[in-house]
Structure formats: C-alpha cells, structure tokens
Automatic annotation (TrEMBL):
It comes from the Bacteria. A motif (GXSXG) lies at residues 44-48. A motif (GXGXXG) lies at residues 17-22. Keywords: Hydrolase, Lipid degradation, Lipid metabolism. This is Patatin-like phospholipase family protein.
Length: 262
C-alpha cells in the first residue's frame, strides 16, 4: 500500500487509552498530517478520547499539547472526600468548556466516538451524539484517582476498563483503519518488578493488551511505541517525551512505506 493509496481511502483512526503516554497520539497525528493522511472518523478511549476530541475539533498540535500541559491533574481544590475518588472529575467541566464551547458531538469537524464504562451495569457504552464534555470526562476518569461521572443517572468511569481500543464503532464505516496503541507491553528484567505497585501495573497492562490484541492486529496500519513503557501513566513530565516518541516512530514508519513503494 502506497502513501497516495492510503490518502485516497476512507480513513478511520482508533486511539487507545494510556494516560500521559497518549501524547504519542498527538505526535502520530502530526506525522500523519505531514504526509497528507487525514482520517475523517475517530474513536478513542480514555486519553485517546480526549486527543480524538481535540483532533475532531480541529485544534492545532500546539493546542492539543497545551490542553494537557495546562490542565492540572492534581489541583488541591479539586480534591474530594464526598465522592469515590481522590479528585472530583466534575471540576474539570469548565476547563473543557474553554476548548469545546459548543459542548456537542455535532459541532465537531470530524465524526467522533468515545467509550466509557458503566460501573453499575458492568458494561461499556459508546457516545457519539449530543452532549460532549461529560462523556469525555467519564471516558478519562481513571479509578481510584478520579471520581466516576454521573450520566443519565448512572455512574461511568474510564473507558479502558472495558475497552481500551474501541475499534467497534468505526470498523464498518471505513475501508482503512489506522490504530495507535500507547498501552505497550515490553519484556522486563526481573528487577523491574520490585514491589506490589509494579506487579499490579504489569498485570493490568498484560490483561489490557491480551484483551485488545485481536483488534490491534486487525488494523490496516498500526502504530505501537515500545519506548513509552519508561513513562509513567500519570507522569506529567513525560508529556513532551511521549509526543516526540509518537512523532518519530510514525515518521520513520511512513518513510519506510515510501521507500518500499518508491
């Protein structure tokens, strides 16, 4: 498949969850754009939902990075003892309103699908119409750090709990799927698993990876970034580094596609 052939396809983009590592999605979008590849339909989970919404909204790469650099992850007056979570997710509404003033899926320039987890029913739910901000907050509300979000009288949390790579809403709507997965699993040295937190993180990562492997493999073009495992999921210092990893990996891959078909 040549770059011009990819450009002429009806393109769909799937963005995984993965916290700060999701800045690699922004680098990927930058690289795709430089090669004239512009997906029209986007689906995302957790941080992938946020990046997808900014992309669908037509925000620049600089605006996307600024959103994550300037949105406080741990603001003392966002702390709560009244909800099940350390931070009150609803407090982010006004910050999001500054980026999405119309607060509507329909106001976006691209079709967007986001997934969140219904904690009460134990099932995933996709959102693509109507109010935008609350579903975005729900999709990114990682327990136990962020409190669940109430939607239609029920509690929702991070989309990655049930579906970290939401291919389903777009697979029948496009003829070429581009995937970006930032929930990576590498080989580890034994001394990398020294405590309970590291073991828990590794086990969770392996479960997420195994559940989504078939969907990842079904993409026509998949980008994964092994270097991201060195960046913590909530490590704000890793924002710029993750972005660079995404950009450099995708540029290299697209250059290889050009050479193969040169």
């Amino acid at each position: 498949m040549t770059i011009p052939q990819i450009q002429n396809k009806k393109l769909g983009l799937v963005l995984s969850g993965g916290g700060v590592r999701g800045m690699a999605h922004i680098g990927m979008i930058q690289a795709l754009g430089e090669y004239g590849i512009h997906p029209k339909i986007v689906s995302g989970s957790s941080v992938g939902a946020l990046v997808g919404a900014l992309y669908a909204n037509g925000n620049s790469i600089q605006d996307m990075l600024a959103f994550f650099k300037e949105t406080p992850l741990f603001k003392y007056n966002f702390l709560t003892i009244l909800k099940p979570g350390f931070i009150d997710t609803d407090k982010y509404f006004e910050i999001f309103k500054g980026y999405f003033p119309d607060n509507s899926f329909e106001a976006l320039g691209r079709e967007l699908h986001v997934v969140a987890t219904n904690l009460q029913k134990g099932e995933e739910k996709f959102f693509s119409k109507g109010e935008l901000i609350m579903p975005l907050l729900a999709s990114a509300a990682l327990p136990p750090v962020f409190s669940p979000v109430e939607l239609e009288g029920e509690l929702y949390a991070d989309g990655g709990i049930m579906n970290n790579f939401p291919l389903e809403p777009i697979k029948e709507k496009v003829d070429f799927t581009i995937g970006s997965n930032v929930s990576v699993v590498n080989n580890l040295y034994k001394n990398a698993l020294k405590n309970s937190w590291q073991i828990t993180g590794r086990v969770t990562g392996l479960m997420i990876y195994a559940i989504n492997r078939k969907k990842l493999d079904s993409c026509n073009l998949l980008f994964e970034y092994t270097e991201l495992e060195k960046i913590g999921v909530l490590d704000r210092k890793g924002i710029e580094k993750a972005y660079q990893i995404g950009y450099e990996n995708v540029i290299k891959r697209l250059e290889e596609i050009e050479k193969q078909n040169g």
